[in-house]
């Protein structure tokens, strides 16, 4: 069951659903012609199919381990990483000044998607580096940029993000790691960080850690946090890895999945670090990096959904049982329903992610605040819905396999175990939903209403040719509009209580809109039949979700801790 | 975070929600007075808390393994099993004639529930034996009964079920294992069986396998299947384990979870077996056993939901983070929402399961076909919704833990990995849904409509005191009634296409009915606040599910295998 890069799906969504043409119509991305994008995705797809996909099981059966303080990676991961780096796939969106290709985020998103589908554990490594590159591009001094960026972009060095501490998870402001000035412009970083993905490896020349810590006298909370670049090996005068820094991997976590990615407990013991951005302004730099990382993690979920889907489809086409015309279980209506659900949900999540990527590209190319607001609005939705879809689709993949799905040898269960963390890291999906109803509605709902105007306007036009699909999409958008109005008029306590069902209801409506666009663009096609399936059978879920979202906090906090323990 | 048996919940549901009093009002179960039931559940709870719960992690960290053809069980499991057997907990519903207590299925259900919550992997062992006892009670010869039943009921011997073969999973009729008459009344059984839960152990005196096989000249399909009892050791003249039979454990499956339960590939090589029931009538005997096993597996899901909930609640009450009044994450609205969802869903699934148990008891006590039809209707719902709830609640438990949920040491992930199989074994949840819309609506919906009459009638009465809760329950029941009417009027192809959303929508409405009953019985209580939460926030999901359920097969099978592979 070899993995096949879903190039046709990217083409369909980019060309007919999220209007990628407007990105290439800008000066900044004029070089990203359709032919060039096609060629790039084709090349990336080849690498994913031939090099990465065969490594997927190794991450699980031959996990990363800690030996004498050094992380030893899974069999074949070093070669896989080399293929990513040599192909230039670590950071194709990076600034050409430092060796990047300056390509749109939409193209990066497709490449990250297929790398995640092929081998999530290994793909997490360049995803971390991408975030670091972006943070350095925006906030580092020219001197740091000159030393680090070319090596990160080429993949010679890897990057990590160090936020979490044992007592400071979702509440980043509670962190206590310290940074003391050394008097020479560098800082001595001391503290323990946990959950550091790819905190070490045995295939890159250096591992560069971005570490949040507090300077002496810093304010409590998030306002007293600064960001430091702390390399494993301190670059020498020529910029080559020099003496070892005072940091170490203390242990690896024993996780439910993603065993190919070493999740490290890191100890910094007066390690030498360089300030990135201004003092006490570390959160702003982290947010630059986190926004795109949130898209990146959402896309991990979508990639795993793709991998799990292809895996289950191959099984269903091959598994002989029962007396259907096909002779295999794909002839059973319930198996067909599961597979169609998997494909339709993956399409919806992918279209949302690529729509976000286009918004980021348009914001970068035009500096238009409306595009930036659109990107900000879509970020938590793409992250949470992408990862929830990854989990739901992988679980359906297990179910399609029946008993074989619970047996590890088939690999179906690995998708589910691997992807489960994506709903937790990079801000739990609950945090994403709170971001959506809090920060992202602080404009009084303006960005949301603008998006709803587009959805309704498209549905109104589509009524002429696709009345049975356009009408429910229009109605759903109207229900979502009323819900946004209700949330905007309510206080934060009410909004936070219903943030998660609201986000999912929003994603349902968005997914329906993008399916409708596909159906209109390609009548009488597989895409239009899938759109009809989604709009008829999955879209109605929004009714319950948005009813929940309008319930506010009434009756929720009245369920006391004592009630819960009763 | 020690496990606490949820005795108050059992009391609430038995007394105020599913009218267990009508069971004890029958002659057959007159001895099961409220005091006696309370005492029994208290004793079982003590054993679960003190003996079984401490073994839960051992099943995962010290899995069952195959050594020289013999299964070695997890550390402490032998002692745990002894406590179950010596306490008389293997089969409290079994006929007193063979050493059972003849207690109602409702009491068994509570005991199975808390054993599953405490240690699912070990509980699966007596659950298999319970099914075997029931099959033998109904179908075995008096001679077989006399030899086997006392030892199975006492727990001295264990029982297993052998249905699946590599080419015959959900399609049991495709099995090819053979049974040849030996001429002395016994049969020589030959074939390979897979997915045999607890196919062997190192703590019981014998392992008795119920094996489906074909006699010479048997018809193809399910009509040519017979059932045989095939013990690991052939009982000698005194009924003690004698010579080893010609069967062996070939290998154990490497599964996603439930590592404490050995899932065996079994080879029968002319093994001596005894016919149970009539020739070629094995499926009928299997169905006797499977119906109650389906309730048993549904209850496994509910038990795990309970375990995962208590585990997550303890974490949330302890985890300091943020600035809520409580100082811990339980003060966050989204954490409160997750915990309330977990508790409300567990209540709904448990009430459905206990309502089914009461129906089984009433059917057994009165032989009333209406009670039997009610039990038949509720069986697939209890199995599928109970296990789906186990999975959903365990996944929420991981989410409440944040990053710690993905780290195996906390045990949150184990609940999710362990419970995932319950949606697959004992008939996948898709098969359950097909049973519901097929066989269980063959009465033209009569049993379903009778249940809906009760639900609406209760809601009508409750309107006087609880209008805000009673009205949505009545409306939801009406929508469900319309959906049942639509299904009854449609053909099987249409029904099978929507079976899964229909089952879940049905369960949603049932859950709301039972919550309403609790709210009416206990005004201004934790239960009534939880009911309001469920009815306001979770019940609305039925709208989307039942809309899907009314969509028939239109547009589903038109999504061709080629479309899916596009």
From TrEMBL, chains A, B:
<keyword id="KW-0560">Oxidoreductase</keyword>
<dbReference type="InterPro" id="IPR009075">
    <property type="entry name" value="AcylCo_DH/oxidase_C"/>
</dbReference>
<dbReference type="InterPro" id="IPR037069">
    <property type="entry name" value="AcylCoA_DH/ox_N_sf"/>
</dbReference>
<dbReference type="Pfam" id="PF02770">
    <property type="entry name" value="Acyl-CoA_dh_M"/>
</dbReference>
<dbReference type="InterPro" id="IPR036250">
    <property type="entry name" value="AcylCo_DH-like_C"/>
</dbReference>
<comment type="similarity">
    <text>Belongs to the acyl-CoA dehydrogenase family.</text>
</comment>
<feature type="domain" description="Acyl-CoA oxidase/dehydrogenase middle">
    <location>
        <begin position="161"/>
        <end position="268"/>
    </location>
</feature>
<dbReference type="GO" id="GO:0050660">
    <property type="term" value="F:flavin adenine dinucleotide binding"/>
</dbReference>
<dbReference type="Pfam" id="PF00441">
    <property type="entry name" value="Acyl-CoA_dh_1"/>
</dbReference>
<dbReference type="InterPro" id="IPR025878">
    <property type="entry name" value="Acyl-CoA_dh-like_C_dom"/>
</dbReference>
<comment type="function">
    <text>Involved in the assimilation of dimethylsulphoniopropionate (DMSP), an important compound in the fixation of carbon in marine phytoplankton, by mediating the conversion of 3-(methylthio)propanoyl-CoA (MMPA-CoA) to 3-(methylthio)acryloyl-CoA (MTA-CoA).</text>
</comment>
<dbReference type="InterPro" id="IPR052166">
    <property type="entry name" value="Diverse_Acyl-CoA_DH"/>
</dbReference>
<keyword id="KW-0274">FAD</keyword>
<dbReference type="InterPro" id="IPR046373">
    <property type="entry name" value="Acyl-CoA_Oxase/DH_mid-dom_sf"/>
</dbReference>
<dbReference type="InterPro" id="IPR013786">
    <property type="entry name" value="AcylCoA_DH/ox_N"/>
</dbReference>
<dbReference type="InterPro" id="IPR006091">
    <property type="entry name" value="Acyl-CoA_Oxase/DH_mid-dom"/>
</dbReference>
<dbReference type="GO" id="GO:0016627">
    <property type="term" value="F:oxidoreductase activity, acting on the CH-CH group of donors"/>
</dbReference>
<keyword id="KW-0285">Flavoprotein</keyword>
<feature type="domain" description="Acetyl-CoA dehydrogenase-like C-terminal">
    <location>
        <begin position="451"/>
        <end position="559"/>
    </location>
</feature>
<dbReference type="Pfam" id="PF02771">
    <property type="entry name" value="Acyl-CoA_dh_N"/>
</dbReference>
<dbReference type="InterPro" id="IPR009100">
    <property type="entry name" value="AcylCoA_DH/oxidase_NM_dom_sf"/>
</dbReference>
<dbReference type="Pfam" id="PF12806">
    <property type="entry name" value="Acyl-CoA_dh_C"/>
</dbReference>
<protein>
    <recommendedName>
        <fullName>3-methylmercaptopropionyl-CoA dehydrogenase</fullName>
        <ecNumber>1.3.99.41</ecNumber>
    </recommendedName>
</protein>
<feature type="domain" description="Acyl-CoA dehydrogenase/oxidase C-terminal">
    <location>
        <begin position="281"/>
        <end position="436"/>
    </location>
</feature>
<feature type="domain" description="Acyl-CoA dehydrogenase/oxidase N-terminal">
    <location>
        <begin position="78"/>
        <end position="156"/>
    </location>
</feature>
